[in-house]
Design a protein that fits this description.
The chain has helices at about 45-50, 60-65, 70-75, 80-85, 95-100, 125-135, 155-180, 205-220, 235-245, 265-270, 280-285, 320-325, 325-335, 340-365, and strands spanning about 5-10, 15-20, 25-30, 30-35, 35, 55-60, 90, 105, 110-115, 120-125, 140-145, 195-200, 225, 255, 275-280, 290-295, 295-300, 370. By secondary structure, the chain is of the alpha/beta class.
Length: about 375
């Protein structure tokens, strides 16, 4: 058994509150998942992510495959043990990172040949190899190997990308089912094992998105993700694709939108019925001095904050806003102090995780109703 989704409340708009039971954690959803690219949520120790309410984080298959290597991580007991993170984890398939190496890759029906961004060495990823790497890493949830469609893309390009993604999805699933019990912690956690999510692609073409979703559902994955969004398309198209796909996905399985988004976006998508979201935005923005607050976006490097003794966000109760001033955070940025990235990131993560906590609370009351009566 890999996962169990227990929906307790639904709303008229489609939002739902649930518990996602995974081998390492019971995750309260809807949930925002901080991105831990190389086995670390950048600039923030694992215990701090826990204290902020982080329930599940992402590991990046491509980066961990290159350094320190998936077999090394397997020998050290899997990714949870290697990075000292006892809660839930999800690994991506490596498909998006390979997609981003446009000048360093060659795509064929068999897989993707690419050159490492680190040293130029040649590597070949197939759906089967992606599954082997993710089984070695041992996250609670693995992702099928897909081909991400860029924006803008012609219909012919989107159709070809969809053809590859569907073929690779079936190969990923077949190989995963044959080997999923090889995960290193399988025997320790009462026989629980990994789960595999399929990824809906199709660019910004509604009929292709529908085809992708329907075919993936027929394959019977453990959960479903909507991928290929936030790659440059207008926000209204992102929303349109999500709204079209969600009703096609099984209500008894988790629904995940990959790589989104700004604070108001993740709240909007959660209220539509998305269970899981991730994005590098809160951590990446923090390292550049952009804070998300109840008063809007704040560029803390601006001169206007040089002697501002207010907390970054007066409405926030995170450890940063309780202790530090805007003036001090600006000073750290001006000096290039590493602490700036840490404090900014802690606040942004607290803000994002706080949004999901409030959504869960409101989905548990107000216009929500018991799942059985929906």
């Amino acid at each position: 058994m890999g996962l169990d989704l227990r929906v307790s409340q639904t709303s008229r708009a489609g939002g739902r509150r649930a518990q996602l039971v995974l081998p390492h954690q019971v995750v309260e959803t809807p949930v925002f998942m901080p991105v831990g690219t190389a086995g670390s949520v950048k600039a923030v120790p694992q215990d701090v992510v826990e204290s902020l309410g982080g329930q599940i984080i992402l590991g990046n298959t491509y980066h961990l495959y290159l350094r320190p290597g998936h077999e090394a991580i397997r020998r050290m007991g899997g990714l949870h043990r290697f990075i000292s993170w006892p809660r839930a984890m999800l690994t991506d398939s490596g498909g998006f990172q390979v997609y981003s190496l446009a000048q360093l890759r060659k795509v064929t029906d068999e897989g993707v040949r690419f050159r490492s961004h680190l040293d130029g060495s040649s590597h070949f990823f197939t759906p089967e190899h992606s599954m082997d790497v993710q089984i070695a890493l041992g996250a609670d949830i693995a992702m099928a190997f897909d081909e991400c469609t860029e924006y803008p893309a012609s219909r012919e390009r989107a159709q070809e990308s969809l053809r590859l993604t569907m073929a690779w999805a079936q190969r990923s699933l077949s190989h995963f089912r044959a080997h999923q019990n090889e995960v290193v912690w399988h025997d320790v956690l009462q026989g629980r094992t990994q789960s595999l999510f399929g990824i809906v692609q199709g660019g910004t073409y509604i009929d292709l998105r529908r085809e992708s979703a329907e075919r993936l559902v027929e394959m019977d994955f453990d959960g479903y993700a909507i991928g290929g969004l936030s790659v440059g398309e207008p926000r209204h198209l992102t929303l349109e694709m999500i709204a079209e796909v969600l009703p096609l996905l099984p209500k008894d399985k988790p629904r995940y939108v990959m790589g989104v988004g700004y604070p108001d976006e993740i709240e909007q998508y959660a209220r539509l019925g998305v269970d899981m979201m991730d994005c590098v935005l809160p951590t990446r923005a923090a390292r550049h001095g952009l804070l998300f607050t109840s008063e809007g976006r704040m560029t803390i490097k601006n001169k206007q904050y040089a002697e501002d003794q207010n907390p970054p966000d007066p409405a926030c109760n995170c450890m940063v806003c309780r202790r530090y001033t805007r003036a001090y955070l600006r000073h750290l940025m001006q000096c290039g102090e590493p602490l700036a990235a840490t404090l900014n990131t802690i606040h942004n993560l607290a803000y994002y995780l706080g949004i999901m906590q409030r959504v869960r609370q409101t989905l548990g009351s107000g216009d929500a109703q018991a799942a059985g009566a929906a």
